[in-house]
Write a structure and sequence with these properties.
about 350 residues; alpha/beta; Nucleotidyltransferase, domain 5; Hexokinase, domain 1; 2 domains; six-stranded mixed β-sheet
Length: about 350
């Protein structure tokens, strides 16, 4: 059993009659598990002593390509775990829009109706949430061991929280506290914030902006703050060195994202170091913009699969300087703390938080 946010409190009640089934569905893998909570989730982040204990157990990871449909893999899990015939409430986090009943996955040939899936699997309740909604919902549950602070003041209880995550793309979501029917809850406001226009701050960033504009119709922050964004920054800086006549013959014209970060961290490639530094700078500006938009005094969190690989590099960069540099309103960003999420299952944790908050 994997237990998130353990605070030496054990659930001793009799087993719940309802099974809370959760999933984190990506383009390559699907993780399925069961969840339970020992403390009211709504108190999270307003009282750190009451940080909820979310128990996530019976985790199974399946390769999506091994199954013809989502219904098939979930039915397999229900059968293997002997859950058939039990009352099941489910919450599935998925990396695609979930506003319509019909869901078509971006990187898989899976298409299905939410209502039909619920009926086919004989579920008592079924909720689909976007993957970044799940990550956002996980944030109030994170312990100090599941995140790393990168500057700023203390998180203020009951204030908005923002999250952005460079990965395949640039995910963005925000959490706001709400009182519904007398009960305090967190509500996620998701969107496509990663696609806002990129704003260059200095001459080097202007060059990168112009370089990408020559190959793309429009340059959003995602064009820099993503895996392919690292590649485009690197290619732009190689072109800049060529123009200046200072490019070494040993420098490759393009590298993969993980090659860029590895070479930068190890100090073996000056252009890779410039690339990663510019990436950190742009991320600081973008995260600071989120803090201004939402007044995110609960914190701005960095998620995704890229940044946790180079947290020390981020700390040493101008990330926090760029985050805070907001002119007359810099006092807002100077106070707002920034964190990198290090928890490796935020999708499952957030799906659990979403479904259990409503109980």
């Amino acid at each position: 059993m994997t237990t998130m946010n353990i605070k030496n409190k054990v659930q001793t009640n009799t087993p719940q009659k309802t099974i809370y089934l959760i999933a984190d569905i990506g383009g390559t893998n699907i993780r399925l598990a069961q969840a339970s909570s020992a403390i009211d989730i709504a108190t999270a982040h307003s009282n750190t002593d009451a940080l909820p204990t979310i128990a996530i157990n019976a985790i199974e990871t399946y390769q999506c390509k091994a199954f013809a449909s989502l219904a098939e893999v979930v039915a397999h899990y229900i059968d293997v775990k002997s859950l058939k015939g039990k009352v099941i409430n489910a919450c599935f986090a998925i990396a695609c829009p979930v506003d319509e009943d019909l869901i078509s996955m971006t990187n898989l040939p899976w298409q299905f109706s939410q209502q039909e899936l619920k009926a086919t699997l004989q579920l008592n309740a079924l909720s689909f949430i976007n993957d970044y909604t799940a990550i956002a919902m996980a944030i109030p549950l994170l312990s100090d061991q599941q995140k790393v602070k990168i500057g700023g003041g203390n998180s203020l209880a009951g204030k908005p929280i923002s999250v952005c995550g460079p990965g395949t793309g640039l995910g963005v979501a925000n959490l706001v506290p709400l009182t519904i029917a007398g009960k305090e809850q967190w509500h996620c406001i998701s969107g496509e914030g990663g696609h806002v226009d990129f704003a260059a701050i200095n001459d080097k960033e202007k060059y990168v902006l112009n370089f990408i504009q020559n190959i793309k119709k429009r340059v959003s922050y995602e064009q820099l703050l993503s895996g392919y964004g690292l590649v485009q920054i690197y290619q732009a800086l190689v072109a800049l060195e060529q123009e200046k006549g200072t490019l070494s013959s040993s420098v490759k014209s393009t590298l993969l994202p993980h090659e860029i970060t590895t070479e930068a961290i190890n100090g073996r490639c000056n252009i890779c170091q410039q690339t990663l530094s510019l990436f950190c700078d742009a991320l600081g500006s973008f995260a600071g913009n989120l803090a201004l938009i939402m007044n995110s005094q609960g914190g701005v969190y960095i998620a995704g699969g890229i940044v946790p690989r180079f947290i020390d590099y981020l700390k040493a960069s101008d990330f926090r300087k760029r985050f805070e540099s907001k002119g007359r309103l810099s006092h807002i960003t100077e106070q707002a703390p920034t964190y990198v999420i290090t928890e490796d299952q935020p999708g499952l944790l957030g799906a659990a938080a979403f479904i259990l908050q409503g109980e």
